[in-house]
């Protein structure tokens, strides 16, 4: 692997470039982002060597790259997959870091299965921050994180194996799973916590606004449960649009659970609920 192209030089894309350098990658890393500020920041911090000026220039760089990393929102990943299908070839690898995988994996099966096509490896590093942007990127972002893959093909190509090795050099652990299972599990462990935190923070804003008492008495519990509420809509719109069913199922289940808690505030059932919650936390 001598040339890498990173499409999307925000938090995850720039961190990928920094992680490659930190792990000893000595080849060339090019990048592109729709924001000139993100492109410039990624170059200045050493996450990429140079940035393409336009999307068309990025497609030209894609022809030369061994590995192309799509570090953009899910719907943009699908758009770039369509663009790259006609300019890439066998021996190259296209991978992504999208938070949902079923739609991406299914599209990959239609675009990249011909003998002369590039290999497509859907991926999802379980790492990030509540805010994005290249300025928050760091080489250690993936250290001890789980990097999930939902491959359509059973036998990896040499370039795919090499990329998986580099992910390991980042300090990440890897796990392969079915794409539908991925989206179901992530709806529970990632998407539901985000929606819960967003709803709670929005509810508090509606109820109290800028009341000074909230800042004065709101302690660690409030900060921790609303931390994800700082995440921008732009980061989560595509997740909600491409994993609607599983997320809706988790929200409905939570609604029922909250109703159960509400109805048992003065019964032993509340104690049992705390016991189950304590058991879950003790396992982790």
Automatic annotation (TrEMBL):
Domain Prephenate/arogenate dehydrogenase positions: 2-284
Segment forming the signal sequence: none
Transmembrane segment boundaries: none
Pfam families linked to this entry: PDH_C (PF20463), PDH_N (PF02153)
Keyword Oxidoreductase: yes
Keywords of this entry: Oxidoreductase
GO molecular function: NAD+ binding; prephenate dehydrogenase (NAD+) activity; prephenate dehydrogenase (NADP+) activity
InterPro entries: 6-PGluconate_DH-like_C_sf, NAD(P)-bd_dom_sf, PDH_C, PDH_N, Preph/Arog_dehydrog, Prephen_DH
Keyword Zinc: no
PROSITE patterns: PDH_ADH
GO biological processes: tyrosine biosynthetic process
PANTHER family reported for this sequence: PREPHENATE DEHYDROGENASE (PTHR21363), PREPHENATE DEHYDROGENASE [NADP(+)] (PTHR21363:SF0)
Name of the protein described by the UniProt record: Prephenate dehydrogenase
Annotated organism of origin: Edaphobacter dinghuensis
């Amino acid at each position: 692997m001598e040339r890498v192209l990173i499409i999307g030089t925000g938090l995850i894309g720039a961190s990928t470039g920094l992680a490659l350098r930190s792990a000893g990658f000595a080849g060339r890393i090019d990048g592109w982002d729709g924001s000139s500020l993100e492109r410039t920041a990624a170059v200045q911090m050493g996450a990429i060597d140079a940035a393409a000026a336009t999307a068309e220039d990025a497609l030209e760089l894609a022809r030369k790259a061994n590995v192309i990393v799509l570090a953009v929102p899910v719907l943009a990943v699908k758009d770039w997959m369509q663009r790259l299908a006609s300019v890439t070839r066998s021996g190259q690898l296209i991978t992504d870091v999208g938070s949902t995988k079923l739609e991406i994996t299914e599209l990959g099966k239609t675009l990249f299965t011909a003998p002369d096509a590039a290999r497509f490896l859907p991926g999802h590093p379980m790492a990030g921050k509540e805010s994005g942007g290249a300025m928050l990127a760091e080489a250690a972002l993936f250290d001890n994180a789980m990097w999930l893959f939902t491959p359509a093909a059973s036998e990896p190509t040499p370039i795919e194996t090499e990329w998986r090795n580099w992910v390991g050099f980042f300090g990440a652990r890897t796990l392969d799973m079915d794409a539908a299972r991925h989206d179901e599990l992530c709806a529970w462990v990632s998407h539901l916590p985000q929606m819960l935190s967003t709803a709670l923070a929005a509810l508090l804003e509606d109820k109290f606004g800028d009341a000074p008492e909230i800042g004065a008495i709101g302690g660690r519990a409030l900060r921790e449960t609303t931390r994800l509420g700082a995440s921008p809509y732009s980061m989560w719109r595509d997740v909600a649009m491409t994993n609607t069913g599983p997320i809706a199922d988790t929200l409905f289940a939570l609604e029922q659970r909250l109703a159960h808690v509400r109805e048992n505030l003065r019964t032993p059932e509340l104690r049992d609920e705390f016991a189950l919650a304590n058991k879950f936390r003790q396992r982790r």
